[in-house]
Amino acid sequence: MKFNVAFISFFLISLVTPVTATAYVYLAPQKPRLIPPEGQTQNFYLTPDAPVFADKDSFEDGLYANDTDDAVFESLVQRSMSYWNSIPGLSIQLKVAKERKGAIDAEDNQFSIGIAKISTVASGLAFPVTDEKEPGRLRDCDIQVGTDISSIPSFVFVMVHELGHCLGLGHNHSDPGAIMGYWQPRDEIALGLDDMAGVLSLYPPVAGQRTQTFAPCGSVAHILGRKSNRGGDLNFDAEKVNDDKTPEGILSPFFILLLGLFAGFIRTKQKSS
After folding, report:
1. Prediction pTM value
2. DSSP code of 219?
3. Which of 84, 112, 144, 232 makes the best surface tag, with the fewest CB within 10 Å?
4. For 160-207, how does the pLDDT look when each residue is reduced to its tens digit (9 = 90+)?
5. What distance in Å separates the CA atoms of residue 202 and residue 39, rounded to the nearest whole number?
6. How far, in Å, are 113, 147, 159, 254 from residue 124 at the CA level?
């Protein structure tokens, strides 16, 4: 009887135990973010090499059929940035710089985008680098897209995902609608509510800006970050990552376990009576 009272009391206490309800993911607990020197605009520099797309002539009824590979490269990066830039109230904008001087170099404090043959299973890589003196600031973030990406929709999908890392978001494994996760089909390029809410938490609207509210989605949140051996470097890919996760969510696993035990206890009591 004492066990029964103690168990039921413990279960009832767990019902009122507060848990957080955020569902987006940061790169790291320090919430590193862009603090661009150009006010509220972060410039990205493209590398001299441009990707070649097999569907260049057929995509959207030949939209890029008469354009050079360089022009298509720039246009698709701008297209990818527009997914983030169009979030109502976002206090930062991403932009392609006019100068074509991009280089994948974690030490040059320059944000660059290029292509490369990637030897891993990833289709793209982002290299966010935090400031050693100011861990909440991303001082550099380069992006590489694999040369095996030959379709325009796949390129845009990977680019939107990697730009999310450069904005400060990590992998969201719990929301099927988040482009920062692995659930979304590549032919359905769209930001999820968690993507938008997460980036707005890092770059909140300034006074007078139009904002957008989001309905709760009930996802489980993870705040994660993975550092390489080089201090300050964070390396995230679009396909695979080994994450150290700290869950924060609507229902804690411990609560779910207690719920199952309590149901079993009630069932046993009913049978015995």
Report:
1. 0.71
2. P
3. 232
4. 999 999 999 999 877 878 899 877 666 678 999 999 999 999 999 876
5. 15
6. 11, 9, 8, 36
CB 125 within 8 A of CB 143: yes
What is the token pair recorded at 43? 């410039």
Helix 253-272 to helix 2-15 angle (10° resolution) is 140
Q: Which domains are delineated in the chain?
A: 20-250 (3.40.390.10)
Q: Closest Cα partner for 164 from 177, 178, 153?
A: 178
Contact status, residue 243 vs residue 226, Cβ threshold 8 Å: yes
User: Which of 65, 138, 70, 125 is closest to 98 using CA atoms?
Assistant: 70
Q: What is the pLDDT of residues 194-223, one digit of tens each?
A: 999 999 999 998 765 554 444 333 222 222
- Distances in Å between the Cα of 5 and the Cα atoms of 2, 153, 243 are 5, 59, 40
17-63 pLDDT tens trace: 333 445 688 988 889 999 987 679 999 999 999 999 999 999 999 99
Tell me how far the alpha carbon of residue 269 is from its chain's centroid: 47
Question: What does the pLDDT read at residue 9?
Answer: 44
Contact 130, 232 (CB under 8 A): yes
Whether residue 129 contacts residue 141, with contact meaning beta carbons closer than 8 Å, is answered with: yes
Query: φ, ψ for residue 172 (rounded to 5)?
Result: -105, 105
Q: Which residues contact 141 (CB under 8 A, 6 or more apart)?
A: 34, 111, 126, 127, 128, 129, 165, 166
